[in-house]
Q: What sequence folds into this?
């Protein structure tokens, strides 16, 4: 009787004095489909603010958003109920570090470590206030998660998140950006070719070599070409002249509704988080409104990425 009573006393004591340990165990066992999208939405809101503050040009911003979205997905997909890694599906993404088998991971912690390290690595430099903001957000989530899960699970999750981030940065570094970003361009002296225009008369076009960067899925851009434009012509009766005149007349006769729409989608560098960031902000809004899971919110941005 005494032995049985002693065992019962120990069991009751564990339940009373260590509820945090049980809660941490439960968090570590949960799949990513059962966690809130809050972390993902907050991180992409922060990335939007950083890109706006850094006045990052839209093409470069699209790359940062895209790689960050893939990094988030790869950070949490191993804990998903149905999804699988993009390794072997995206160009040159041969493999991604996998979590330790039969070991518990806290997926929000993994995602937090991955996003912080990836975002810092994608910017060649950051304004001090932006670097501080990224670090502060990482620490804010980290402090919260450390109180939720056990020390070993937390440290294991951080280590895995950083390993995924390093793999994503290595993959991104091989896409040609380092040599093709703002490549030199010599205007072709033929009618209809690009040339500096008012009011700024910028001597260089925006990212003339961007189409040579490695796509994520396509073999090359020609696999999904945009519709062709009318051939350049100075003939007043040509399709080109008609199209140019239509654009001009629309621009000088905008309705109030058209002005509102134009301003909403203007998204100039330094004014907003750029056009791709605008779509990412919409995805974050959808995630919050519909209370998507962490896994579902990780799927959305990578589907939305603009080339």
A:
């Amino acid at each position: 009787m005494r032995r049985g009573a002693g065992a019962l006393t120990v069991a009751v004591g564990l339940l009373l004095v260590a509820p945090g340990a049980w809660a941490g165990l439960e968090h570590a066992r949960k799949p990513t489909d059962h966690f809130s999208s809050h972390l993902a939405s907050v991180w992409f809101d922060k990335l939007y603010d950083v890109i706006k503050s850094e006045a990052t040009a839209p093409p470069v911003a699209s790359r940062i958003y895209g790689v960050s979205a893939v990094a988030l997905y790869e950070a949490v997909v191993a804990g998903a109920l149905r999804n699988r890694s993009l390794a072997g599906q995206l160009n040159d993404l041969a493999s991604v570090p996998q979590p330790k088998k039969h070991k518990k991971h806290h997926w929000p912690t993994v995602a937090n470590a991955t996003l912080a390290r990836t975002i810092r690595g994608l910017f060649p430099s950051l304004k001090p206030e932006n670097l501080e903001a990224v670090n502060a957000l990482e620490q804010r989530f980290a402090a919260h998660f450390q109180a939720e899960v056990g020390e070993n699970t937390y440290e294991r999750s951080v280590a895995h998140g950083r390993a995924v981030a390093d793999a994503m940065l290595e993959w991104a570094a091989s896409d040609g950006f380092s040599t093709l970003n703002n490549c030199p361009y010599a205007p072709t002296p033929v009618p209809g070719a690009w040339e500096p225009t008012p009011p700024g008369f910028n001597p260089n076009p925006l990212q003339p070599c961007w189409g040579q960067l490695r796509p994520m899925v396509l073999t090359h851009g020609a696999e999904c070409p945009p519709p062709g434009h009318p051939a350049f012509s100075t003939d007043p009766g040509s399709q080109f002249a008609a199209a140019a005149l239509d654009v001009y007349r629309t621009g000088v006769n905008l309705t109030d509704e058209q002005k509102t729409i134009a301003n909403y989608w203007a998204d100039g560098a330094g004014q907003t988080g750029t056009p791709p960031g605008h779509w990412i902000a919409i995805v974050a809004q959808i995630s919050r409104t519909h209370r998507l899971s962490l896994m579902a919110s990780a799927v959305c941005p990578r589907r939305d990425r603009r080339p």
Summary: The two ends are 72 Å apart (CA to CA). Confidence is low (pLDDT under 50) at residues 1-27, 302-307. The first helix runs from residue 2 to 17.
